[in-house]
Specification:
This protein has a ten-stranded antiparallel sheet. By secondary structure, it is α+β, with helices and mostly antiparallel strands. Strand 1 and strand 2 form a beta hairpin. The protein has one domain. The chain contains three helices and ten strands. The model has no long low-confidence stretch (mean pLDDT 84). Keywords: Signal.
Length: 198
């Protein structure tokens, strides 16, 4: 009887051990998920003129780092100097992204309040964004658009729906009508530039 009991206990232990070994999950395999991350932007040097907040005028070549600094060189052989966006009052650079601005020859950055903005349209009502690119990222407008109206009031838009509502009100106030369709950001910028020219 003892031997039967002992053999049942050994058999139970062996079965439990085998079952425990077999129930382990297999090692997870690596799964690669493709992403749609764009390639990094290759910022170039552009000829330009900067007016700093202290009144200094800089002429030379400027390169953005895409965030809050510009690299400045008086000539191509001169040493590089970092200029923070907080130091710049106005910056005009050669070259323009004609897909997003109505300017063909240059891109303007200017200070309003304590921030530097890229000017997308000229005129009494201007559309601005906070992207520090000239023509490196073609057709790209910042996620947030800003409208500086003729009363120097700055309006911030993060929703395309609200931007369209503002645009239709702007059309009615100007007395000219361009479109009744729902427009994307680039189309609104081009339409405001057209309305400002008339």
């Amino acid at each position: 009887m003892r031997s039967v009991l002992l053999s049942c206990l050994v058999l139970l232990c062996a079965t439990t051990f085998t079952w425990a070994q077999g129930s382990k999950h297999p090692a997870p395999t690596t799964v690669y998920i493709p992403t749609n991350t764009p390639p990094p932007i290759n910022y170039k040097y552009h000829d330009g003129v900067a007016l700093l907040r202290d009144g200094t005028l800089l002429k030379g070549r400027f390169q953005s780092n895409g965030r809050s600094n510009f690299t400045y060189r008086a000539t191509s052989q001169a040493t590089r100097q970092k200029i923070g966006a907080s130091m710049i009052r106005r910056l005009a650079l050669a070259g323009a992204d004609t897909l997003v601005t109505n300017r063909r020859d240059s891109t303007i950055f200017f200070r309003f309040g304590n921030r530097l903005y890229r000017q997308l349209t000229d005129g009494a009502t201007m559309i601005l964004d906070r992207m520090f690119v000239v023509d490196e990222d073609r057709g790209k407008i910042g996620y947030q658009l800003y409208v500086l109206d003729e009363n120097d009031d700055l309006h911030k838009f993060t929703s395309l729906n609200k931007l369209n509502k503002w645009f239709y009100d702007f059309q009615e106030k100007s007395g000219r009508k361009l479109s009744d369709a729902y427009l994307n950001q680039n189309e609104i910028v081009k339409a405001v530039a057209q309305l400002n020219q008339k």
